[in-house]
Write a structure and sequence with these properties.
Blueprint lengths: L11 H14 L7 E4 L3 H17 L4 E4 L2 H9 L13 E7 L2 E2 L5 E2 L6 H9 L1 E9 L13 E5 L4 H10 L3 E4 L16 E6 L6 H9 L4 E4 L1 E2 L5 E5 L5 E5 L7
Parallel strand pairs: 1-2, 1-3, 3-6, 6-12
Antiparallel strand pairs: 4-5, 5-11, 7-9, 7-10, 8-9, 12-13
Length: about 240
């Protein structure tokens, strides 16, 4: 039986993401310091890294981007470290909510956007895994932009965003009363800007607002994106070598 043959209880998207994640993990080498992304797609990468450590006896250290990634990596017996000990990483493998033609990303549905972007900025290679439904012509198409904000500042930031014709909504928790609290102790605003013409410009503008911690616009960050297709083939897209980051 083929390893990737469809199963009745597993969607093609889950199979495609898993296969793409395994392809991405093949880039990890013995001795690497690896950024461990958050979310369901990144979880496949963490599983495979743990399996490779056990099977191949690789010496790898991981830097998790969230409590979720920390717990999952610990369960897979992946040795962990911090940016204090290793401020320069070899590679990060993470998921994304949207990817445009220039490999700009939209992330943050899991609320870990700030640490994900920090760890990405510390990594020499930035690798992302998605299924083909995440590919869009323009970021923000039928998708809000997560913005992590200080709780003290969120009313003012919501007003400023509304004045620039964004539609901000304070993200509410599903299993507790009140707003979602990030791993950093902050709130998340989900902002509908519609299709984004210039992700770099919008990201920079939002970051100038006092109280904004980070945005889910990952512009000019990705080096490689693996795309799992409906037919379970994998497409690899790369930035041009002269990318300025």
């Amino acid at each position: 039986m083929s390893r990737w043959r469809s199963k009745p209880d597993v969607s093609w998207q889950e199979q495609a993401k898993k296969k793409a994640a395994l392809e991405a993990v093949s880039l990890v080498k013995d001795g690497d310091i690896v950024g461990l992304g958050s979310g369901s797609t990144a979880a496949f990468s963490i599983e495979e890294i743990g399996d490779r450590i056990q099977k191949e006896k690789l010496k790898i250290l991981g830097v998790p981007t969230s409590y979720q990634a920390f717990i999952h990596a610990s369960a897979k017996a992946i040795p962990l470290t911090t940016l204090n000990e290793h401020p320069h990483l070899d590679i990060i493998i993470d998921g994304a909510d949207q990817v445009d033609g220039a490999l700009n990303l939209l992330k943050g549905r899991g609320g870990a956007l700030t640490k994900e972007k920090i760890v990405a900025s510390a990594s020499q290679r930035r690798v992302y895994v998605v299924d083909e439904t995440k590919i869009v012509n323009k970021l923000g198409t039928n998708q809000s932009v997560p913005v992590e904000v200080l709780p003290f500042a969120y009313p003012t930031i919501m007003l400023k965003i509304s004045e620039m014709r964004g539609i901000p909504i304070l993200r509410e928790a599903s299993k507790k009363a009140g707003p979602v609290i990030t791993d950093n102790g902050n709130f998340v605003l989900d902002v509908d800007f519609g299709p984004i013409e210039n992700p770099v410009e919008l990201n920079c503008y939002l970051k100038t607002m006092p109280g904004v911690v980070e945005t889910g616009i990952f512009a000019k960050i990705a080096d490689i994106v693996y795309i799992g297709k409906r037919d379970l083939t994998i497409q690899r897209r790369e930035q041009r070598p002269n990318k300025n980051t």
